[in-house]
Amino acid sequence: MAIEYLKKGIDEKQRTENNEKVKKVVEETLHKIEIEGDKYIRNLSKKFDNYSPPNFKLSEDEITQLMSEISDEDMDDIKFAQKQVRSFAEAQLKTINELEVEIQPGVILGHKNIPVQAVGCYVPAGKFPMVASAHMSVVTASVAGVPRIVATTPPFQGKPNPAVVTAMKLGGAHEIYVLGGMQGVGAMAIGTETIKPVDMLVGPGNAFVAEAKRQLFGKVGIDLFAGPTETMIIADDSVDGEICATDLLGQAEHGYNSPAVMITNSRKLAEETKNEIKRILEILPTKDTAGVSWRDYGEIILCDTYKEMLDKANETASEHVQVMTDRDDWFLNNMTAYGALFLGARTNVANGDKVIGTNHTLPTKKAGRYTGGLWVGKFIKTHTYQKIMTDEAATKIGEYGSRLSYLEGFIGHAEQCNVRVRRFGGVNVEYGKPVAKLKN
User: Fold this and answer.
1) Is the pLDDT of residue 1 over 70?
2) Active-site residue identified among 230, 272, 299, 319
3) What is the C-alpha end-to-end distance of the chain, expressed in Å?
């Protein structure tokens, strides 16, 4: 049986047209931020968020006041989530080792790990205050040892969101700004009269934030392409339609363009799931968003075999992949392109998003084919070094370097090697000529 789409989203042409519109708006916006700085940032904040404070950077007093508004229960929950994220990041950090090896007698090669020196963490909050995104970026950067962590977030309902700001501060942010969307990301990367630029941008966001990060890459580093949320369910008849529908709509509520895809080998489960989605959308408080997202970007794909399900899942390379089958570990061992896996019916994407401890900033737009998600290693640069300790080693490596440089026509390179052979090996090498084979 060929793969059958029981429900399909809008076509690729429409998606491409939408992306092109976003691309043009972001390009113009970033250009104006670079020219006009703080003035344009303020105009954007007024336009999109109706927010224009004396200073976008929060003072310590303002942060303390906002943190005082958090209930004891919410504070405990934030601290619990951050402990989960910090513990896993610390465990990951222990796997990143420095190296030094004597590759030849007298030739030392090595690498050392250096944290990125200034990181900008974007935390969405315009529609939903994404408290968890502060844990994922700020806490993880702090564990990596980043010396300057800048965090920015949009105002929520006209003012800084206390829970988001609390999570940023507890996570280890050194500077906190209340700036949303393209203006927040652009200000951190480009810099303004009052905001010193960073070296790297991290964090999820809407289509405009994701496109801004893409266009700013090169000027600064980025973690990955983390655009609108994507979710995929791989399920067989070991689960029911209610749990599948709940998990699809639970991610579709993120935004109007959040793909939610189900891959199954059970027509019965597919039909049950469609019926459950219809039922849940009548009572879900976020149905106005989730319903549009499911209508335009939701898909149900019926396959004949588990191998077809696997192949389609790898081809799609979804951000979140929830596997609920009678062979979850088989998918774990054979999946090659995804953001993060959630294995078994007891596990769900919401836990990964909020509290379980793995990072929820994950690749979208099929970027899972070539990168994983944000983790402590993304904030650490691995730099190599080399040193030659003996005259004999300098002569031997210089000999080979001379001939290989000459082979490519790089005479200046060859002379860099030749002068070492003359100086440390006492060999008379004619200027601009390769070193003849020596007896080593």
Assistant:
1) no
2) 319
3) 66
